[in-house]
Amino acid sequence: MLDYLPLILAGTLAAATPLIFAGLGELVAERSGVINLGVEGMMLIGAIAGFAAAAETGHGAAIGLPAGALAGAAAAAVFGFFALSLAANQAACGLALTIFGIGLSAFIGQHYVSYSLPGLQPVVVPLLSDIPLLGPVLFKQDWVVYLSLAAFALVAWTLAKTRLGLLLKAVGEAPEAAHAIGYPVIAIRYGAVVFGGAMAGIAGAYLSTVYTPLWVQNMSAGRGWIAVALVVFATWKPTRLLLGAYLFGFVTILQFHAQGLGLQVPVQLLAALPYLATIVVLVLISRDRKLLQLNLPASLGKPFLP
Q1: Taking 90 as the threshold, does the pLDDT of residue 164 lie above it?
Q2: CATH tag for 5-295 (out of 1.25.10, 1.10.238, 1.10.3470, 3.90.320)
Q3: 44 and 218 in contact (C-beta within 8 Å)?
Q4: In angstroms, rounded to a whole number, what is the distance separating the alpha carbons of residues 305 and 87?
Q5: Is 284 a residue whose pLDDT tops 90?
Q6: What's the farthest any 2 CA atoms get from each other in the chain?
Q7: How far is 240 from 23, CA to CA, in rounded Å?
Q8: Helices 223-233 & 238-257 angle (0-180, nearest 10)
């Protein structure tokens, strides 16, 4: 067990990285009062855009991640046009975006089925990487893993300590009041939604250019839905979202090391563990109605027209 522990923990950080990006983006969008169920679709659009950019230019994740972010942001802007400018049902628009993303990525990805990318080498921190157990886990990761931690710190600080964070939460709680005192509610929500799309695009591009550097149809494998669930699991708090992402990352990695650990469990059940864990967590969280009502943005999912 101890021999596998560093591998499991190191793999947990990598497996949680796309969930952190996508979850933080959705958290910001929901804090502004907009629920976007199209995270899965935006991840797939970002994945194929990032992979295509990396394959065509030969620059790997360095160009793939920005391309994925732009593609995800563009998809989110389309969602915003219908859900914000036209005040259409947000849940329906999000589901339509997911369906569109699945189809578009599969269509474009046909050309890249046989391609593979070199991936990223881990960043080895001298001396610190030699620390027993923690060294290989914390100081031998690719730079995108560290970027996800920086993104978490930035989002958490912005929401808790800045005027922008307070304004974002005010728009999510009482858009009519924010509009009455002169704040552009729709513009602020657009910004939050596009930011969420960019983060989902980065998550998808990480999957296709770094985590598994080859193109596979539907390679997000439900991670977008897990990211949406993580926001509820975290009760709209970044720190809880980070911990939740690592929990789901651990469950995901555990299935790959189960045989080495001597666990006699069917492969199909192990593959379903992350999704079963999502259902269990949501059921447990939903039982605490007071906690949900205390942190739930009051205008979440409600259209606003000035």
Answers
A1: yes
A2: 1.10.3470
A3: yes
A4: 7
A5: no
A6: 63
A7: 11
A8: 140
1 has pLDDT over 60: no
C-alpha span between 280 and 133 (Å, rounded)? 30
* CA-based nearest residue to 57, from 142, 117, 144, 147: 117
Predicted confidence (pLDDT) at residue 291 exceeds the cutoff of 70: no
- Cα gap 36→204, rounded to integer Å: 16
Q: What distance in Å separates the CA atoms of residue 58 and residue 65, rounded to the nearest whole number?
A: 13
Beta bridge partners of 124: 140
Q: What is the CA radius of gyration of the chain?
A: 19
* Sequence-distant (≥ 6) Cβ neighbours of residue 278 within 8 angstroms: 225, 226, 229, 248
Per the CB < 8 A criterion, the answer to whether 227 and 39 are in contact is yes
Give the span between the Cα atoms of 224 and 39, in whole angstroms: 5
Q: Is the pLDDT of residue 2 over 80?
A: no
Q: What pLDDT is stored for residue 16 in this prediction? A: 95
Q: If residue 61 lies in a helix (H) or strand (E), which one and from where to where?
A: helix 61-80
pLDDT digits (tens, 9 = 90+) for 107-138: 999 989 878 888 788 888 887 777 887 888 88
pLDDT in the model for residue 105: 95
| CA-wise closest residue to 199 among 133, 270, 148, 139 | 148
Residue type at position 76? A
Q: Which two tokens stand for residue 105?
A: 């990525």
The answer to whether the CB of 168 falls within 8 A of the CB of 175 is: no
* Domain chopping of the chain, boundaries: 5-295
Matching residue, tokens 């967590």:
281
Residue 262 is predicted with a pLDDT of 64
Residue 3 pLDDT = 63
| Contact status, residue 55 vs residue 115, Cβ threshold 8 Å | yes
